[in-house]
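Researcher: I'd like a structural prediction for the single chain below. Treat it as a standalone chain; there are no partners to consider.
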Amino acid sequence: MVLYFTATGNSKYVATRIATAFNDRTVSIPDCMQHEEYSFELSPGEYLSIISPVYYLGFPTIVRDFLNRFSLTTNGKTYVCFIATYGVTPGGTGHLANKYMQKKGYLVNAKFGVKMPDTWTPVFDLSNKEKIKRTNDKAEMQIDEIIKKMSNKATGDFLHYKTPLPVTKIAYYLYEGERKTKHFSVTDACIGCGKCAANCPVHAIEMQQAKPVWIKDTCAICLGCLHRCPKFAIQYGKNTQKHGQYTHPDTLS
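Model: Treating it as a single chain, here is the predicted structure.
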């Protein structure tokens, strides 16, 4: 079973590659949260892979909340992997994966990372499509290597460029402030399609008079609404307009 959360398609693409390689099933964490499905059973020999993007050196809130409620039933020993998709660093996500799984009585046997385009456009510029393509091409080789290691049931921490735990804690504290939905704005380019509201993983957006309105004070700041908007009408802060949009070319339009 491959559990994943995605906003722009990076983690979904990795999840699909992993599931295809092992003839496995993919399970969307937001779908589980929506239907309140937290208990899972693995068949004998089935792997468990957890795939998550990195937000402020840690987990998105939706991944954190899911793993707090998650329970697993297995028949025999289970090979457990964690894979971080990240733009600069996997931060402390490997440590967090260990923490949550140990609470459930399981060991994370292997931790991996895949460097992909960083979709946090308040800081990172995604307007250079050739650079994005080069990054995703390199990611293919990283995924191939992960599949090879998983096939051999490799164990160990294969994450690179990690951050010390104190740094992770400071950055994650800042995440809480950035989650405030007051940072979002909508331009006159909005056509009222409702795609942002339909795809918000924490249901923070509601369409009112054919315009998106954030009805919660905080969200996951996955920026899925911004990146998926067909008219690029949703912005976060002052820099996103010039930094462009991104969805993984093989998973989301």
